[in-house]
């Protein structure tokens, strides 16, 4: 409907000249091939840009007729790109933008549709074309209505109504705002403001009758039926719906609105227990929905027919049930996309106000960056001071006690101290990178993601600091810490790698103690030295399984392998990140075994593919079950 109305506002003299030529060419080819193939063939042989523009527009419409919406949008974009590049027809650019806008609207892609409505309005203002500006506001209104922002929708409809009024006055023609009034009526209907909806629908209906405009008459009739149905006036609703059906045939309309009318009638008869009438109209609605690939009406009709046949014909009932379930699944997918697009789309502010807002935002970003830098400095200083104090303490003990037993204890304490330093530092590069990622998200106004990132980072930092003085923690806490770390790295690298954590349900993680941060270094190495050098990313899998009297923790990646990683390091690639040494982890396991009479161990497997090429690394840690 939007594009049909739009035709009233744009006349292109160039098309009047070129169209007969195109029709003649097309007629010769269409008898041999399909319309789409013929148009593509002509385009490939055409060198004249102005002809290509018209052909791409016709191709876009052909794709739209075949419900190939993505291809339709792509064709109109081609026409728009050629037109912009040569600056041939500015008015026609509006037409192509409006076509793209409407097809995106039909696809349910309201967010991108709003973007093209903005472009449409901007170009209309540049051309000082009141008709184009009115149409852009109309498009805005339709998008906002589907996104549920009814106030914004009405605001744009009334603005569009004023621009259309100016358009017709400037051409000394009677004002035609009928379609806009019907859009306003539909919005009031969704708001359950039935009186206002009735006023605008009746005005549009009278104009439609006076002009013998079938589109206006049909849409008005349907809305009047919907209003009465919503108010509970079923008999009045049926009268309007019964009037709609012959008018639909009379005016040779072809759209999915008929499906809504037929389904509404079927539901009224179902409520009245007139089941044969219900089935009659449901079958009509079902056929219309199949014709237009209308999942919403297909689901409603199939569900009604399933209920009708459920007690009389099992085979028919099952057939309609399967169709209803499939349609419902498709609708759920569409609804998820729609919900994801529900957002606020603010109008542009004046250039001076925007500059002030940008300056304020930049100042805030600087303050946040300074705050982050101070926080990092404080944390680093506290860690350094704590380590220094511990070193001084144990150094004094060593100087005072020369006995072999005390020396051995010191060596054990020193190993513990190194482990604490590893836990506390958590790689300064990692902390700086996390903070920079948060800053970057804030600067690009991805504040929701920044909050999630900062919350996860703070949880990880708090967990590490809380466990800084604990030589051992539960395996549960260790796994949770690793999950937080891996989640942060995944967000920071834009989900370049996948990760999975699986734990045997029979294992009580909280009853098992392990050296703190014994697993995390291997995950870090898997990400940085295994996965990140790969162009297409990869997967890190952490699994915890029970094996006899042992708990087996496996860190598996499908990265480049240690051999190639070592070569890269030798060449200087990836030098910004230092691998966590395996020997330190092995020393910590040995110390834990000695202190607690355990038998933990570490195993490293270099994975190979069928050709013997490196295809990742597998680390296996064995812990004793308590």
UniProtKB/TrEMBL annotation:
The chain crosses the membrane at residues 367-385. TPR repeats lie at residues 53-86. Keywords: Membrane, TPR repeat, Transmembrane, Transmembrane helix. One of its GO terms (cellular component) is membrane. It comes from the Bacteria. GO terms for molecular function: phosphorelay sensor kinase activity. Residues 418-497 form the Signal transduction histidine kinase internal region domain. SMART domains: TPR. InterPro entries: Bact_2-comp_sensor_kinase, HATPase_C_sf, Sig_transdc_His_kin_internal, TPR-like_helical_dom_sf, TPR_rpt. This is Signal transduction histidine kinase internal region domain-containing protein.
């Amino acid at each position: 409907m939007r594009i049909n109305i739009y035709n009233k506002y744009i006349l292109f003299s160039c098309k009047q000249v070129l169209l007969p030529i195109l029709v003649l060419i097309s007629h010769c080819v269409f008898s041999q091939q399909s319309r789409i193939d013929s148009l593509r063939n002509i385009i490939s042989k055409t060198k004249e840009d102005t002809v290509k523009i018209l052909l791409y527009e016709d191709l876009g419409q052909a794709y739209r007729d075949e419900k190939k919406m993505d291809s339709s949008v792509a064709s109109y974009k081609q026409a728009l790109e050629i037109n912009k590049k040569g600056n041939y027809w500015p008015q026609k650019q509006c037409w192509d933008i409006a076509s793209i806008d409407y097809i995106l609207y039909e696809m349910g892609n309201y967010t991108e549709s709003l973007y093209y409505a903005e472009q449409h309005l901007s170009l209309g203002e540049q051309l000082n074309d009141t008709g184009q500006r009115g149409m852009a506001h109309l498009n805005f209104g339709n998008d906002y209505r589907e996104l549920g922002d009814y106030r914004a929708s009405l605001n744009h409809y009334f603005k569009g109504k004023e621009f259309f009024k100016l358009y017709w006055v400037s051409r000394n023609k009677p004002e035609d705002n009928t379609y806009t009034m019907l859009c306003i009526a539909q919005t009031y209907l969704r708001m359950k403001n039935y009186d206002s909806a009735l006023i605008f629908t009746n005005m549009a209906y009278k104009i439609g009758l006076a002009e013998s405009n079938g589109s206006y008459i049909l849409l008005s009739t349907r809305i009047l039926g919907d209003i009465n149905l919503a108010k509970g006036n079923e008999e009045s609703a049926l009268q309007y719906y019964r009037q709609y059906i012959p008018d639909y045939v009379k005016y040779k309309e072809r759209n999915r609105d008929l499906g809504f009318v037929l389904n509404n009638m079927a539901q009224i008869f179902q409520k009245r227990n007139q089941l044969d009438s219900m089935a009659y109209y449901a079958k009509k609605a079902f056929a219309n929905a199949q014709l237009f690939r209308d999942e919403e009406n297909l689901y409603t009709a199939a569900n009604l027919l399933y209920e009708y046949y459920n007690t009389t014909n099992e085979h028919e009932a099952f057939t309609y049930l399967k169709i209803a379930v499939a349609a419902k699944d498709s609708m759920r997918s569409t609804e998820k996309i729609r919900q994801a697009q529900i957002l606020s789309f603010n109008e542009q502010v004046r250039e001076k106000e925007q500059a002030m807002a940008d300056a304020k935002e930049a100042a805030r970003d600087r303050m946040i960056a300074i705050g982050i830098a101070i926080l990092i400095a404080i944390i680093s200083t506290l860690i350094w001071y704590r380590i220094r104090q511990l070193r001084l303490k144990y150094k004094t003990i060593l100087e005072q006690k020369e006995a072999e037993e005390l020396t051995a204890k010191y060596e054990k304490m020193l190993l513990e101290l190194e482990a604490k330093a590893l836990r506390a530092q958590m790689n300064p590069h990692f902390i700086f990178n996390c903070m920079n990622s948060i800053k970057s998200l804030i600067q690009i106004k991805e504040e929701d993601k920044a909050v999630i990132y900062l919350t996860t980072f703070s949880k990880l930092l708090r967990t590490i600091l809380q466990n800084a003085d604990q030589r051992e923690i539960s395996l549960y806490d260790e796994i949770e810490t690793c999950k937080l770390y891996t989640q942060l790295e995944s967000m920071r690298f834009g989900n370049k790698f996948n990760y999975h954590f699986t734990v045997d349900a029979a294992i009580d993680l909280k009853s098992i103690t392990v050296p703190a941060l014994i697993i995390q270094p291997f995950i870090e190495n898997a990400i940085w030295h295994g996965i990140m050098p790969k162009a297409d990313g990869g997967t890190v899998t952490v699994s915890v399984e029970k094996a006899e009297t042992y708990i087996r923790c496996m860190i598996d990646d499908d990265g480049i392998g240690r051999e190639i990683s070592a070569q890269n390091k030798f060449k200087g690639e990836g030098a910004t990140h230092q691998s966590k040494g395996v020997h330190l982890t092995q020393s910590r396991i040995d110390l834990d075994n000695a202190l607690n009479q355990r038998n933990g161990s570490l195993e490293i497997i270099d994975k190979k593919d069928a050709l013997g090429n490196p295809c990742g690394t597998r680390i296996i840690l064995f812990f004793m079950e308590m």
